[in-house]
Write a structure and sequence with these properties.
341 residues; mainly beta; four-stranded antiparallel sheet; 54% strand
Length: 341
C-alpha cells in the first residue's frame, strides 16, 4: 500500500475511569478498504478532549477544573510545553496569527494566549467573559463557552456560548493585544448553541444547537450577522439535548451534524437558502461525540464515545451520503478527531 492510500488521524479521548485510554492516540485509515488501524499513543495526558493541529505542532489541554490542573499542552517534534489555564473544564481550542484561544465550559470564560514564532504558548493576554444564562434550569444557569474560532478574513474571534444562548464576536488588534466585543448574536432561547462552522468566505455560518437539537443558519451583511432560519436535526423527535459536532463539506454543498442520543449523523443539502435534510446516517456505535470529513472529501470517520469505537464511512461527494465500510477500531472514550499532515 502506498503512502497515498493511507490517511492518519489523531484521536483525543477521555481517560478517567472506566476508560483505559492514556491520552491521544494515532490511527491510520486505509483508503482502499476503509480499515482503521491503531498506530500508537502519541501523548499521555488526562482527558485531552479537543485537539488542533498547525504547522508548528499539536495543541490540546486537560479537561478538568483549575484545582485539578487544567492546562494547555503544546507538543512538537522537540518537546512538550505546558501552560496553566485560568478556567474550569476547557473544551475547545483554536489558533491563528500567533494567537491561541481556549473555551472553558465550566467557568464560561475564554482565555487568549500569544504564541511565539515557533508556536509555543506564552502568557495569557486576554480573559473574556460575558455574564448570562438561559431558560434551561439544568444546563443554562451560567455562561458555558463551548467553542472558539478565529475568523480568517477579519480580525475577529467567535465564541459560542451554550449557557447564555449567544454567539459573541470580538474584534482584536494583534499588535496591541486588545479584544473588544463587536456583536452578540442572540440565539433562540434554550437552544444551547454548541459548535459552528463558517463557509469559505465567512459570509454564512451554521450553528449546531445542542439543547434544542436544531441547525441555525446565520448570514453576514453590512458587517453584522443575523439569524435567517432554524431547522430540526431530526424528524418528529423530542429533543434529548445531545447535538454535538458539525462539519461542512469542502465544496460547501453538504452539512453534517451528530446527534449523540440517537446515534446518528444528520446530513443536509445547504446549496439553497434553507438547509434540506437528505439523509440520516447511523453512527455505527453509541454516542457520536465527534466525527471528521477527510480533506479529500471521500471519507467520514466517527468517534463513538460510549461504544469505544471509531467507525469509517465512504462519502459520496455527489449525494453527500455516507456509506459504512464495515470497519471499526476499538479506542476507549474517543471524543475528538484531527487529520494529520
Amino acid at each position: 500500500m502506498s503512502v497515498s492510500d493511507y490517511l492518519q488521524f489523531y484521536v483525543g479521548t477521555y481517560t478517567d475511569a472506566p476508560s483505559q485510554s492514556l491520552g491521544i492516540t494515532r490511527v491510520g485509515l486505509n483508503t482502499q478498504t476503509g480499515e482503521i488501524t491503531r498506530l500508537d499513543d502519541g501523548l499521555v495526558l488526562r482527558n485531552p478532549s479537543y485537539l488542533t493541529l498547525t504547522q508548528h505542532g499539536l495543541y490540546t489541554f486537560s479537561e478538568v477544573d483549575r484545582k485539578q490542573g487544567a492546562a494547555l499542552t503544546f507538543s512538537n517534534a522537540e518537546k512538550e510545553y505546558i501552560v496553566p489555564i485560568n478556567g474550569d473544564y476547557p473544551c475547545h481550542v483554536d489558533c491563528f496569527n500567533q494567537l491561541l484561544a481556549v473555551a472553558n465550559y465550566g467557568s464560561g470564560n475564554v482565555v487568549v494566549y500569544s504564541l511565539d514564532e515557533q508556536g509555543k504558548p506564552l502568557a495569557p493576554i486576554a480573559d473574556l467573559f460575558i455574564q448570562g444564562n438561559g431558560p434551561n434550569e439544568e444546563r443554562q444557569t451560567s455562561p458555558h463557552a463551548h467553542q472558539v474560532t478565529f475568523l480568517k478574513y477579519s480580525s475577529q474571534l467567535a465564541v459560542v456560548d451554550l449557557g447564555s444562548d449567544h454567539v459573541h464576536l470580538y474584534d482584536y488588534d494583534i499588535n496591541q493585544q486588545v479584544f473588544s466585543l463587536s456583536q452578540s448574536i442572540v440565539m433562540p432561547a434554550g437552544s444551547g448553541p454548541r459548535h459552528l462552522v463558517f463557509n469559505r468566505h465567512e459570509t454564512v455560518a451554521y450553528v449546531a444547537c445542542e439543547l434544542s437539537e436544531t441547525l441555525v443558519k446565520l448570514v453576514k451583511g453590512e458587517g453584522q450577522w443575523r439569524l435567517v432560519n432554524q431547522t430540526a436535526l431530526l424528524m418528529d423527535e423530542v429533543s434529548q439535548e445531545a447535538a454535538a459536532a458539525i462539519r461542512l463539506s469542502c465544496d460547501e454543498k453538504f452539512l453534517y451534524v451528530s446527534c449523540r442520543a440517537k446515534n446518528t449523523i444528520s446530513i443536509f443539502d445547504v446549496s439553497d437558502e434553507v438547509p434540506k435534510r437528505v439523509a440520516l446516517c447511523e453512527s455505527g456505535g453509541a454516542f457520536p461525540r465527534d466525527f471528521i470529513l477527510s480533506r479529500d472529501g471521500l471519507w467520514m470517520l466517527v468517534a463513538n464515545q460510549h461504544s469505544n469505537t471509531l467507525v469509517s464511512f465512504r462519502r459520496d461527494p455527489e449525494s453527500g451520503k455516507a456509506i459504512p465500510t464495515g470497519y471499526e477500531c476499538h479506542i476507549d472514550a474517543p471524543v475528538c478527531l484531527v487529520e494529520q499532515g
